[in-house]
Design goal:
Largest sheet: 5 strands, mixed
Oligomer: single chain
Number of domains: 1
CATH class: Alpha Beta
Radius of gyration: 16 Å
CATH topology: Nuclear Transport Factor 2, Chain: A
Shape: globular
Strand content: 35-45%
């Protein structure tokens, strides 16, 4: 388990559970469940957009997951919980691999995210914001 997750206190176990569930869903063939982990008014700040993206647009952006699966190493770099809010820094490094072998090569995929979580009225946690970038890989000029 990532050191950042290992340091989450027992009383904040629901935060750790949400993070682990999100990581499992991202790696699954049922990516659509990912959106169940977000608040209804969730906002994505994507590197390819100059404006905030809401759930309908995020679903449209992620429709490529119907053809690809995430084969990535993940690193939960930091978890900070304060009252009814939390934030998580998580990094992904790996490939998007075609679900059907059509001869297409895997696509390199690297991203770093900050998830801002909110405690819900029932005591559960959901992701309210996903802020991310795609860092340049060493040796790339663009």
């Amino acid at each position: 388990m990532a050191p950042a997750l290992a340091r989450v206190l027992e009383e904040d176990e629901a935060v750790k559970s949400l993070i682990l569930e999100a990581l499992n869903v991202i790696r699954s063939d049922d990516f659509e469940r990912y959106f169940d982990l977000f608040t209804d008014d969730a906002v994505w700040m994507m590197p390819s957009s100059f404006k905030d993206v809401y759930q309908d647009e995020a679903r449209s952006f992620y429709r490529f997951t119907r053809k690809f699966r995430f084969d990535q190493e993940t690193s939960v770099d930091e978890v900070v919980i304060s009252g009814d809010s939390a934030y998580v820094r998580v990094s992904f490094d790996g490939y998007l691999r075609p679900k059907v072998d059509d001869g297409s090569p895997p696509l390199r995929s690297v991203s770093r995210h900050i998830w801002i979580l909110q405690k819900q009225s029932d005591g559960s946690w959901k992701i309210a914001r996903d802020i991310w970038n795609t860092p340049k890989l060493a040796g790339r000029t663009k």
